[in-house]
Amino acid sequence: MSNGYNENDYKWINEILLYPQKLEKRLDYLEDTSSIKVPGDPIEKVIFQDKAKKAIRKVAQNRGHMLMVGKPGTGKSLLAGMFKDVLERSIGDYIRPKKAIAAYPGKDSNHVRFAYEHPERIDKYLKDLRAEIEEAKQSIEEFSLADLIASVRKVKKFLIWGACLSIIGGIYFPPLFIVTGLAGIGSIFMFMQENNHKVQEKIQRESLQGMILSVKHIEDMVPELLYDPRKDKDLMVNVSEPNSKNMKGGFLHDPYQSGKLQTPIHKRAYLGAHAKAPIIYIDELKTLVKTRYMYSLFEIMQNKRYMLEGGTNTGSGAADRSENHLKADNIIIACCNHDTLIHLQEEGDGAFLSRIEDKGEIIEMETSVPETADNVKQVAQYIKQEILNLEQEFERTWGKVFEKEGNAGVRERSEKIYGKKLPPDYKLTVRDFSRNAVTEIIKELRCRSSDGKLSCILRPINGILKTAELEAIIDNSEFVEPKHIRTALEEHLSLEGAVSVEIIQQKKDLKKYITSMTDSIGYVVGLAVIHSRSSGQMFGQPLPIHCQINTGGSDIITAPGKIGDIAKAAAQNVRASIKRLMRKIEAPYVCCEMHIEYVQAHGGIEGDSASVAMDIGLISDYIQHPVNQKFGITGSLTGDIILAVGGVTEKIRSIMDINLTMEGACIPWQNKYDIEPLLVNMESEYIQLDDVPGIRIYRSDDRKDPFDIYFCKTKYNAYRILMGLNKSEVEAKMVERSRKDLEFTKQVKCEYEH
């Protein structure tokens, strides 16, 4: 097998050095983002997702369903909103419901019927009906005995006056006291008669309440308007947690269930998204699986109608039902991640996916795209769009302050926020990005991806752009410059990124301590990454590894600790590779116990990117030759070949800190393009050690603090860089060690036998 490089290989490395100039040329059409025009088509405001945008236009034309599959931050929610805007502008007036939905009593108290009618007709009908009911209320005359009570009261008063006058006359003419007695008795009788009439009037009025109740019964029969298209004008409704209540609708609980006070069923009914919204957007399809609404959605998507039903079998309203169907001709727009997609493929043999494909498309969102000239322009457009969004936010927050108090008032209030004096000419206005600042964002997108591609996970970048804007505003800079971007990147670390920074700080001291306390035999600096679940970003960190080979004992390899299955398999592959090499060079093989330790990797290790580092550590210990501790290495070892791994850009960037005292790294040849973003705004040059090509990056001005990156095709290239030995030297030392081990084991065996 050839371990050398051909002439084209060296040309490719020199071409990589030209990457900053190539990127600069792709952006030579702009000096800053002020010249960029944002497209008027809402779909074109979503960058990178060309395949998804094309599919959305087809789905909008056919009025079909759509499922977008991809990682968070790739623009799924944004595309759903753009889909609604496109339909709104094109055929929104045709797909928007025109008829209102009214409910009225069914065959009994547990059934309801629905009617579709133009809202103006329903308004007129309900208005006329309520007017007639009000007239019926007013037509009921109130029972009254007021005239009879008034005449009795007059007689009573006359008798009382007669009794009083007869008392006065009786003083002078005693026989008049007889008249007093008769008048008193008469007035008492009239008083009793008056009260009797009042009681009779009250009884009669209460008995007439039945007539009023009959009017309430008529009111309970009045239809209820459940949906008015004049008020609900939005084409799309966002359902975060789909279930029977918010998707279908239902019946409210009635606290007055007896005594003729109960609420009629049609007045307790309410409608869900299916009956009201032309477009239903389900932001996370995993919630649909959790709430067990999947099969109900199947049926509704198939039949385009459904019956409204009550609650659970034992709950309130369990017997409530509709007598006729509600229409449900909805467009379903849903989003999910890949783990949910796997579940959907297995659930019901992919029934949901088949229904989506029958009437629409399943769209795979891009997580990364090639760095083409067009995609570079889209990055600049994306930055301009975020600048305009921030300008609108400033207007909403500070518009009234600026209108009343001007720039001086905004500056004074901003000083209270920042806790320091701001320049007299401070203005809270957005700044455009300079060309170099745009290249810095492109560099960051490249670092967050691999294989010469730009990351499509843009949501975390939004915060970086806003923070960079605020930094430029505080500096009172004319444009946002690369230094503002770098400051924003330092501030916008995810939880995993903050943990990674802490680990790197710890690894600095650990690495220095190991180097000072050991002879560097069996020790190698591997490179690892931490993946952020929230942002999708990778954070590199050094991974010290210690390896030992002990002659005799069990012919096994051990890697204790929290090691994943792939990492364990990688260790077994390394053991097989070493045994194969020993057979190839005809070195006598003696049983060896191999031991691999990931030094203080308490969080666990998974993946095969440390397999070449394990091989070098084991070989170093076997031939008792030190490994250069100022160089890191990463790569997947298959036989003698080093294959590509992920996160190389971040791995290298993590050890380029001058304080870490690292001087370089070895990476797989296939990962050569992952070095390109590290060359932006940095001086670099081509280097070569024997036949291994590399790139030297100067981390400080005046070409100081060089950092060498070598591109290795085989493990022998890595041996040359990290141990200073070529292939023949390594093999010779292995043969020598193997023979010594064989002689030692023979000697021990003889001594044991004698």
What does this structure look like?
- By secondary structure, the protein is of the alpha/beta class.
- The chain folds into four domains: 31-37 and 368-492, Helicase, Ruva Protein, domain 3 (Orthogonal Bundle), CATH 1.10.8.60; 89-119 and 230-364, Rossmann fold (3-Layer(aba) Sandwich), CATH 3.40.50.300; 146-207; 498-748, Ribosomal Protein S5, domain 2 (2-Layer Sandwich).
- The chain is built from 26 helices and 26 strands.
- A nine-stranded mixed beta sheet has the order 18-19-17-16-20-23-26-25-24, with helices on both faces. A five-stranded parallel beta sheet has the order 5-8-12-1-13.
- Helix 19 crosses helix 20 and helix 23 (611-623) packs across helix 25.
- The two termini are 46 Å apart.
Biggest sheet layout: 9 strands, mixed
Question: How does CATH name the architecture of the largest domain?
Answer: 2-Layer Sandwich
CATH class of the largest domain: Alpha Beta
Write the CATH fold name of the largest domain. Answer: Ribosomal Protein S5, domain 2
Quickly count the helices: 26
How far is it from the N-terminal to the C-terminal residue, by CA? 46 Å
User: Which secondary-structure class do the elements indicate?
Assistant: alpha/beta
Which regions contain 5 or more consecutive residues with pLDDT less than 50? none
